[in-house]
């Protein structure tokens, strides 16, 4: 049995590990496919960002700065412009600066970008001024005026994508100057599907130093990537593994329970064999004594017949108990209640049990008041017999057992060691016996009290055990 259980557990464990491996591989593949799709959509976001930066740089350069530079080259005073904070000349020798006057810039050559606010316009007339270069300091907060023009005049994504159905509304754009947000479109920043970078002079020209964030709306992902963004499979595979693990644990627990049940049944068979062997041995021995006429007196003959009768009663009680237990396990245990005097039934049962009790020197006293209740006679007789047998078997020799009936309550009170409080519910389970009884090698099958509980339950009653009036156990049946 142990080797078979080990094999089953090993197979179940291997099945779980195989499932876990397959789930891990599938999850890895799903994560890889999702990451690939997100990178592809992120590339589209980078493409849209580049298009936006090119358009914004062109707008600011040609529509914002170029007209101002033309006026300075033509010798016209620089007009007031919200795009320009100031115009100045920078001395190339001592790095000092002075206001830029009209005519100081003779041409527009060598136009370069030095940071996010200043543009070099070109070389001045070396004869009129010290070696210096002219510059305009721009106001980035005015750039959004040109950014809106970019969104109106340009498609940030190529028209060839999704047959031109994607508009700029599918692209989120945000431009920052340090921690200050200069411009943002509707929507929200989606890092897995976007790009963020700080622009260099090579990237943005007039936008150098600014930070741009661009991302694609998830709702248009199916138009950019076949099948769209794969859904996360982690919940599915996680649930599958948890269910598989629960099934494995359940199977292991069931196997352990099966092993425990098999052990209990083995103990039950051993107990039944021992219980039946004792009365059968007694019956056979005294029957042979009578058959071989080995008795020496009429008193010995009577004693032999008494023991045979006693052991026959005991054997009949054991067989009845096993039959009742078997019916209970199959669910075929039935009763037919009729009005009957419970006290009279108890007295009859005690009289029939007296020979067995006397064999151990046990006295059974009856304290019963007449009580007519709907009961099944055979079932209640079995209940009383089982409780008496239990009291005599586990109690000390020469004790006095009291059986009482008060109204709808039946009790059996003994002088035994009692039942520990922690075990008072467990002893009514099938095959259950206290460890101390096993240690004392007291014969038993562990089914007597379970039969009592089932028969009492069929009478819509209950049975319990409590401390007795003489430090023993008191079993109480309430009908």
Give an overview in words.
The chain has about 475 residues and is of the alpha+beta class. It folds into two domains: about 1-230, no CATH class; about 255-479, Heat Shock Protein 90, CATH 3.30.565.10. Helix content is about 50%, strand content about 20%. The strands form four sheets. A five-stranded antiparallel sheet has the order 2-1-5-4-3, with no helix packed on it. The protein has a five-stranded mixed sheet with strand order 11-13-14-16-15, with helices on one face. A hairpin with a 5-residue loop joins strand 1 (about 85-90) and strand 2. Helix 1 crosses helix 2 (about 145-155), helix 7 (about 340-360) runs parallel beside helix 8 and helix 8 runs antiparallel to helix 10.
Give a brief outline of the structure.
The chain is of the alpha+beta class.
Q: Residue share in helices?
A: 40-55%
Task: State the major sheet.
Answer: 5 strands, antiparallel
Overall mean pLDDT: 80
Low-confidence stretches: 108-112, 125-130
Task: Give the overall shape, derived from the CA principal axes.
Answer: rod-shaped
How far apart are the termini?
A: 43 Å
How many helical stretches? 10
Strand content: 15-25%
> What is the CA-atom radius of gyration, in angstroms?
50 Å
- Tally of extended strands? 16
Question: Helix and strand succession?
Answer: HEEEEEHEEEHEHHHEHEEHEEHHEE
Number of domains: 2
Alpha-beta classification: alpha+beta
- Give the strand line-up of the largest sheet: 2-1-5-4-3
């Amino acid at each position: 049995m142990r080797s078979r259980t080990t094999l089953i557990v090993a197979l179940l464990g291997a099945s779980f590990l195989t499932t876990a491996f397959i789930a891990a591989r599938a999850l890895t593949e799903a994560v890889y496919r999702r990451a690939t799709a997100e990178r592809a959509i992120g590339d589209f976001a980078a493409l849209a960002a580049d298009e936006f930066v090119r358009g914004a740089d062109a707008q600011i350069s040609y529509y914002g700065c170029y007209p101002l530079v033309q006026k300075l080259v033509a010798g016209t005073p620089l007009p007031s412009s919200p795009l320009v904070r100031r115009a100045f000349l920078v001395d190339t020798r001592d790095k000092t600066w002075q206001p830029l006057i009209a005519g100081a810039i003779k041409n527009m050559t060598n136009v370069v970008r030095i940071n996010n606010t200043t543009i070099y316009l070109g070389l001045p007339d070396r004869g009129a001024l010290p070696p210096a270069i002219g510059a305009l300091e721009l106001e980035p907060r005015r750039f959004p005026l040109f950014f809106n023009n970019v969104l109106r005049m340009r498609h940030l994504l190529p028209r060839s994508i999704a047959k031109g159905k994607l508009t700029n509304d599918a692209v989120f754009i945000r431009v920052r100057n340090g921690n200050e947000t200069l411009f943002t479109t509707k929507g929200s920043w989606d890092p897995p599907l976007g790009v963020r970078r700080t622009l260099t002079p090579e990237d943005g020209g007039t936008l150098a130093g600014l930070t741009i964030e661009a991302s694609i709306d998830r709702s248009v992902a199916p138009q950019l990537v076949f099948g769209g963004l794969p859904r996360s499979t982690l919940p599915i595979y996680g649930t599958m593994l948890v269910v598989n693990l629960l099934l494995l644990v359940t199977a292991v627990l069931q196997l352990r329970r099966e092993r425990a049940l098999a052990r209990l049944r083995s103990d039950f068979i051993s107990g039944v064999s021992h219980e039946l062997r004792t009365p059968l041995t007694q019956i056979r021995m005294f029957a042979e004594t009578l058959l071989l006429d080995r008795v020496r007196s009429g008193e010995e003959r009577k004693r032999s017949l008494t023991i045979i009768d006693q052991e026959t009663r005991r054997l009949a009680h054991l067989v009845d108990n096993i039959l009742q237990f078997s019916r209970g396990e199959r669910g075929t245990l039935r009763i037919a209640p009729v009005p009957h005097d419970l006290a009279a039934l108890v007295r009859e049962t005690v009289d029939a049990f007296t020979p067995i009790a006397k064999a151990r020197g046990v006295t059974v006293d009856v304290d019963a008041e007449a009580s007519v209740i709907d009961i099944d006679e055979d079932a209640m007789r079995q209940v009383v017999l089982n409780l008496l047998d239990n009291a005599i078997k586990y109690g000390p020799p020469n004790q006095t057992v009291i059986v009482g009936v008060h109204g709808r309550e039946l009790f059996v009170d003994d002088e035994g060691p009692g039942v520990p409080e922690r075990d008072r519910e467990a002893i009514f389970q099938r095959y259950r016996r206290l460890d101390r009884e096993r240690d004392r090698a007291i014969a038993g099958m562990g089914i007597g009290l379970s039969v009592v509980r089932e028969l009492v339950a069929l009478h819509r009653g209950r049975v319990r055990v409590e401390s007795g009036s003489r430090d023993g156990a008191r079993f109480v049946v309430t009908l």
